[in-house]
Amino acid sequence: MAFSWSLKNLPKQIFINNEYVGSKNNKKLSLYNPKDGSLIVDDVSLASEQDVDAAVAAAEKAFPAWKKMLPNERRNIMTKCTLRCIWQIDKFGGESWPQKDGFLKIVRNEPLGVTAGIVPWNGPIGTIGLKAAPALATGNCFILKPSEKTPFSSLALGTLIKEAGLPPGVFQILTGDGSTGAIIASHMRIRKVSFTGSIATGKKIQEMAAKSNLKRVTLELGGKSPAVIFDDCNLDNAVMWTANAITANTGQVCFAASRVYVQEGIYDKFIEKYKEAMKNKVKEVSAPDKETTNIGPLVDEAQFKRVAGFIERGQKGQGKLLVGGQRIGDKGFYIEPTVFTDVDPTSEIHCEEIFGPVSVVKSFKTEEEIMALANNTNFGLMAGVFTQDINKALRVASDFESGMVGINCVSLMFMVSPFGGSKESGVGRECGIHALRAFTEPKTIMINMNY
Ligand code: NAD
């Protein structure tokens, strides 16, 4: 299966019933290339209410047969169109409870029906798999709404979906902006929305779900994740993980370790090495279409201005600029990996999600002091602790108020274990068996054995 898309030949129409079709909306999306700001296209479909209704109707029609298909058959088709993450479907057979009281209880995991995923721009392919794979594997039909900033990787999937033999209506792709997302979140016949994006939008989606049909909601939201580095750590390991964490994907990662706390005994040494590592990262910044590039530009001008704004304001009394802070080149949205030290713990660069390659570093004396600061936030996605004392590592891991904790590592995830945040970083979990539960509802069947 090969893609034949090129910049001149990108898919721009929505995908319903295994066909690319024009939207009923006159409004279109414009897309710009982040490497130089040039216009790519200005006519990508923006799905309207009528388009969402058409996608829902197609999905409802496809649902009964898809639901009845054996899980392994569904998996084989999905694997052909690169939707993996679903090996646990074999082990998701439900439960039964013995009939000692005269009633045999069987618990089935039932699909919900028409489900949807609303995804952001910073992981436009990865987030599709996290949502579509468990949705389809458990027998639901699925509607994908990619970000208005990154529609093409989603739309290109349409070709694979058709070639892999997914029945028409099982997987629809509706490009659009927040208006399309809101129609989906408020739709009376969509039974579940799995959302990844900002906290502000996540809260709106939960509200729309509640006001419409109480559809089920999973929310994967933002973070401002701490890495706590103790005197007794392996210093080079701590530097490597924290420098990679804040520069991968140009820092546009929800679980990036953006707050780095270093115990005072190794603070100076850490700063020297971390500064060097971040300076070296500049050499990895280049155009996204070059095979050797590790760090690309920020996604667009708006994100560039947002990150640059944080850096500019940060230098006005919030902290001390250690390294970076400048634009790279004079076109495109490239920015130097940037570190602030001596930050005011109440300042915006310390407290808010910047979503760029910008970290803050602060020294600490005691575990008690730093755990209070690390947890003093409404975010709770990821945390990391660096130490060679296993007792301390496990104690701190337990004390972090976050959905995920790395010991001697940070900002990573695995498909088998729950992914998601506590507090305002999210509701529910993705990956592994938790993802399958999030797209099903238990149904209890009670059999009277005395009848
Ligand atoms: P965003 O909330 O602006 O948009 C995300 C998606 O929601 C887009 O598809 C957008 O079109 C849609 N949307 C916008 N307004 C809507 C509305 N009113 N109703 C319904 N849908 C609407 O977020 P973004 O800027 O695309 O992504 C960045 C954010 O995503 C960051 O905060 C980041 O931390 C978070 N994120 C979280 C995770 C995670 O797994 N926890 C992963 C990646 C990104």
Automatic annotation (TrEMBL):
It catalyses: an aldehyde + NAD(+) + H2O = a carboxylate + NADH + 2 H(+). Signal peptide: none annotated. It is an enzyme of class 1 (oxidoreductase). Its EC number is 1.2.1.3. The active site is at 220. Residues 23-81, 89-445 form the Aldehyde dehydrogenase domain. One of its GO terms (molecular function) is aldehyde dehydrogenase (NAD+) activity. It holds the Pfam family Aldedh. InterPro entries: Ald_DH/histidinol_DH, Ald_DH_C, Ald_DH_CS_GLU, Ald_DH_N, Aldehyde_DH_dom. Keywords: Oxidoreductase. Belongs to the aldehyde dehydrogenase family. PANTHER family: ALDEHYDE DEHYDROGENASE-RELATED. This is aldehyde dehydrogenase (NAD(+)).
